[in-house]
Amino acid sequence: MDKVQDNRAWFLIIPVFLIVAFSAILPLMTVVNYSVQEIFGPGQTLFVGTEWFGKVLADDRLHDALFRQIIYSLAVLAIEIPLGIVIALGMPGGRSAKTSLTLVLLALPLLIPFNVVGTIWQIFGRGDIGLAGATFRALGINYNYTSSPLDAWLTVLVMDVWHWTSLVALLAYAGLQSIPPAFYQAAKIDGASKWAVFRYIQLPKMRGVLVIAILLRFMDSFMIYTEPFVLTGGGPGNSTTFLSQYLTQMAVGQFDIGRAAAFSIIYFLIVLLFSFVFYTIITNTGSGEKK
Amino acid sequence: MATIEFDNLGHSYHPRPSSPTDYALRRLSQEWEDGKAYALLGPSGCGKSTLLNIISGLLVPSEGRVLFDGLDVTRCTPEERNIAQVFQFPVIYDTMTVYENLAFPLRNRKVPEADVDRRVRQVAEALDLTADLKKRAQRLTPDAKQKISMGRGLVRSDVAAILFDEPLTVIDPHTKWILRRKLRQIHEEYRLTMIYVTHDQVEALTFADKVAVMYEGAMVQLGTPQELFEAPRHTFVGYFIGSPGINLMPCTLGGDQAIVEGISIPLAPGSANGLPNHELPKVGAKFELGIRPEFVELTRSGTAGSIPVQVVGVDDLGTSKLATVRMGSHTLKARLSEDQEIPLDAAIRFPTRWTKLYHDSYLVN
User: Considering only alpha carbons, which residue of chain A is nearest residue B102?
Assistant: First the structure.
């Protein structure tokens, strides 16, 4: 077949290209531009090359924040993914009022604005008036998220679990609902145990949605900002200061635009890298041909 | 292997069924022999899947009992009944290899690994899966996947029965034919009780020793393929089995004669005696005369006992001819041999042996 040159295709691509350019590429390029300059004020800039990148990479506070961030994201995944699956397995199936009610109840935390979630937990955990905080105090447990780093960490984690496990559960539930009943009947006839049904039918069939759940929860938790900011403000000390918050302090608090820009680019690359690694690992495990 | 018995079995999805039409499966008492191949045949929604699920134990019937070898298993699970079932769409365990898939039912039952290996290889051999044993099941074609599903049913040597729920739907016609032969061979070799649900008459007739035809929740006939062909007990059987189906004409009765639009057609002597309670035909009771196209004789006018007809069309089917004739206001089909001449002054005869009388759709005999 002869190749036909047809330039009309460009008319179809250009609008998309423009939208992407204005929404993603241009803002990103601005950041790249800032990251190689020292900015003293409007119009007063000095080209500094890769100096900011060197400084950011050598920053100890950033290393601490990154380490904290990785631990936090892994903890979020380790709790929310299994918990979400367990909830999905326990949810009623079919089209009944019970199903609808469960779905609505599960979706509720997802509908609450992030800073409201932070405020809810801030009050909930307070020792004087908060339901949880006061209960702990009454039980004699010394709980105070404003002074104990461990308590602050636990509170932030529990808050995230409360806020986002529903998402994992709903995704896993959608995956479970797509399994034809014949699979369960066949497994029953094959004499499969409950564990075998989970291991060989439910888990493999949920894989697609779980990849999405893991990626979403990883990226979101890696970029978390609002809730810990409202709840603990990054404290006590720097114990709950995650990457986003450190970045904001740098860019808005200290107005260190050039350094913050270099930081942003590194941050972006880290998220990209981690997501890529996760995606590759999950899509390759279990699907490869056994040699 | 087991004898399967239905004792006053019926099922309705309604909480309080009142009329017969509320039943997905109407009252049924029957015994199915051990080691035979049965087919459940009927259009969609006729109740065949309901009956199959009751046999397999996936559904508890609302009425009556199911007995395996005389033992009441009505409320037993599929596992307790020790049956195997193959579903319409391939059910495979994606993350396992073909070998592991076939071994799964045995390993779940803690069969010694040496026996597992022997059985798996035997079944793989029978289903031509040996070359694929080490492959991951997910990567195979739909018909190979369905072979695995079948293999998982066949791998257990001690099952009471193997149930097939339209297992060849996803398979291409040629492979369908091969697989059906394979099943037939396996049946003859191991003498397993097999129950095969299908809506395809060819599949049912070639596979089974006995075919149960279902219609609107009722089992209208259970018989060998020959019985279904020669003596359909219900007009639906006549219509559903055979291609084309039976010729039917509304008629009235006069002694041993059926009268169709004033034309008398002789019936086998005593045909009308089989009427329920020898009652005189009730007003409104419907009589029909039925004869298969294969048994209609086409001759010249004037032959003794013949009725003149008008030939409307002839279809040459390669191995036989199918004539469409008009008798009064009725159109009939007649199957003729390839070399038979069609006379200009055509007439048809109804051999009494093959001319059946139906009363409210049921055969009178």
Answer: A190
